[in-house]
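question for whoever is on the cluster today: can someone run the full assembly for these? two chains, 467 residues total. i dont have access anymore since they changed the login thing
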Amino acid sequence: MPDVVTRFAPSPTGYLHIGGARTALFNWLFARRNGGKFLLRIEDTDQERSTPGAVKAILEGLTWLGITWDEGPYFQMERMALYRKEAERLLAEGRAYRCVCTPEELDARREAARARGEKPHYDRRCRNLPPGEAEGKPSVVRFLAPLSGRTVVRDLLRGNVAYENEQLDDLVLLRTDGSPTYNFVVVVDDATMGITHVLRGDDHLNNTPRQILLYEALGYPLPRFGHFPLIHGMEGGKLSKRQDDVSVTAYRDRGFLPEAMINYLVRLGWGHGDQEIFSVEELQKIFSLESVGKSPSRFDPEKLLHVNAHYIKTGEPDRLAVLLVPFLRRRGIEAEPSAWLAKAVRTFQERSRTLEEMAEASEYYFRRKDPDPKTAEKFLTPEMAPLLEEIARELADLPDFTPVAMEPVLLRAAENRGVKLGKVAQPVRVALTGGTVSPGLFEVMDVLGRDEVIRRLLHASGTIRGG
RNA sequence: GUCCCCAUCGUCUAGUCUGGCCAAGGACACCGCCCUUUCACGGCGGCGACCGGGGUUCAAAUCCCCGUGGGGACGCCA
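^ ran it for u. tokens below:
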């Protein structure tokens, strides 16, 4: 058994979101760093809300990020017999009892308690039900929690956190239909799966003392606990579906690179001196819980964009070409990965923050784009027609159609007219790309190829003369 | 309401454990300049923070207390 076994245990009620992805990442890195194992477990005991589609989406998200699990995915629905057995045991040992209160009654009492300014807790009235009273009635199984004393959570990140047991609740272990609830299964599973480090979001800190009590009642050894600060949206507070983009795959579909996502996510709540850029390999060597902060952080799409730009800038053109293809197709451009596409990619690596941006910006490599009237009027003026034709002619005569050979052609054209290069370059750029913004002119020509360059230059001059 | 957690630039953070090296460093964003065939990239510079109040100490961003603020939890959700 390795010294470290961690897990990620999402509930399949939606896609993999940013917060869950970071929790998975931290667990994974911690396991890898310590030569341990990382398991995946699907918490699907809520049959109302769990869906197969969500399971698929979560696995897809993790796979895209490159977060690999050593065991699983385990499904709790397949482990029902175990939970029932453990619940029976607690019942038999008098550490759990049947409760016949209905959800409606509980709701009403909760409301009343809140109105009185009390903590809205179950009042434990079924604790002393006469034997047999619950027979034949719908009932749940509740944990018989201690009424006094205190439970201390020894948290790896926060130190010791003490709770008065009287603040805790007799939580429901088994629902009326016999299915187990979260706080119960999580304990049974973590214990039986040999999880050594339970590392999860801060929203679970308050559950931990109850779970510790359950560990004790069940006679399980206690794992170590660690609670990460939550990730908030830019408005503060939990990431919300409405205000923030929270799905990991949505970022994939918008042209973000997985390594950028990992890099950005790991820096939310964790730091390593002044360093900003980390490869996964490096993270697996240096990630540590000690460097995880305690305060919540905000998810900032601007910075993610910056990190993604970095990875696009430094990425392998061949790989980026492969990744770019779907984004081109989405724009109706049937492209295939190729050396040519990689060359095209190279010209945009320093000016695209996402693959989506790259696909959009590089459209004119695949089909001619005509300038809008305003741009045409400004740059494709009547006196430009002979110039474009002259340039086309000279380019046609070039022994080698290379950037170094092209440059003197434009330089000469500018010199002959006594203007700066820019005066000539912009009209050519508009003729070639339909716009005033593009990679270096000679790079663009190189990608387009001699024939297409000449074709577009003459088309532009033809338009000027004809219109 | 009760319980719990947290608190350094607008944002992510370094520094806090082991007080002095901090007139607080880096990154994103923003602004200016340079480079330049456009846009970017890059380079240089600027703006910008220790939540407040008490204490401890020769010395506090760092330790303690109290406020305040933010967040989380209080479910037959996870």
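summary bc i know u wont read the tokens: The mean pLDDT of chain A is 94. Chain A has 19 helices and twelve strands.
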